[in-house]
Design a protein that fits this description.
Length: 272
């Protein structure tokens, strides 16, 4: 059971206080979800690091079993003109680690992107970061990586059955780039919650709508980054590794695509 194909996120809709976050992270660890996503703008790096240290000691989890991912935000790119190593050092201190498993550019702001990416590559080669990547990209951004010496190991994009990102997924699968989906359940938009297709597929497999959507991500080659404030929900979402969707069911769910996007990007991400 590869529950590391699920990443627990500590983003906008997650609990920010110690007690609340520890409850859901404990539920994740108990479900063998050992991958965690954060960012400076989430305000959870320090509390996440503290909780993971406590749970690692309590439950005897070695560092190599954990996957800890954080980001460089746009303001950090601007403030340092792309020379972001000091922010990475700060993040490692907050997280209580001596390396970061994955470091992502949160928004590919054009003015500072090239210098930032060069810093990322240097950090990866030095061993401070094991994987590097970028969030909130479209196909036009991915094609431009041909001009760089090093392409992303990972991209993280908003993706769900209402926004399937077929072109981006195909490009990444062809070029060996891992894809992560944030907001993978689209906050259970009513068009998903009330979907006859999702209900039928879920009933056939004896799973909830959320479990079905998360399994759809995995069966289409994508790692979902989910968040919840409810420990029982975390356990529910971990229960998706005892079934697979048929090709027909995947096609039906993908047919819900309307290129709907919850988070507008024009101000933060005008394009490379």
């Amino acid at each position: 059971m590869d529950t590391n194909r699920l990443i627990f996120g500590t983003g906008v809709s997650s609990s920010k206080d110690y007690d609340g976050l520890k409850q859901v992270i404990r539920a994740a660890v108990e479900s063998r979800i050992l991958a965690f996503d954060t960012a400076p703008s989430y305000g959870t790096e320090e509390v996440l690091g503290r909780i993971l240290k406590e749970l690692s000691d309590e439950m005897v989890i070695d560092r190599e079993s954990l996957f800890i991912q954080t980001k460089i935000d746009a303001w950090q790119m601007q403030e340092s003109d792309g020379n972001i190593s000091k922010y990475v050092e700060s993040a490692m201190k907050k997280l209580g680690v001596d390396y970061i498993d994955s470091l992502l550019i949160h928004w590919p702001v054009p003015e500072y992107f090239n210098t930032t990416w060069e810093s990322f590559v240097k950090l990866r080669r030095a061993g401070a970061v094991r994987k590097i990547g970028v969030c909130n990209v479209r196909l036009r951004h991915l094609k431009q990586f041909a001009a760089f010496d090093y392409v992303p190991d990972i991209i993280q994009i908003e993706r769900n059955p209402l926004r399937t990102c077929g072109k981006e997924i195909d490009f990444c699968l062809e070029h060996g780039i891992e894809v992560q989906a944030y907001s993978p359940l689209c906050k259970m938009d009513e068009r998903l919650r009330d979907s006859g297709i999702l209900k039928k597929v879920s009933q056939k497999n004896g799973k909830s709508l959320g479990q079905t959507v998360l399994r759809w991500h995995i069966d289409t080659g994508v790692t979902p980054v989910f968040t919840s404030t409810k420990p029982q929900r975390v356990g529910e979402y971990a229960g998706i590794f005892d079934f697979k969707l048929s090709d027909e069911d995947i096609c039906k769910i993908s047919s819900l695509n309307i290129d709907y996007k919850m988070y507008l990007e024009s101000m933060l991400c005008p394009g490379l």
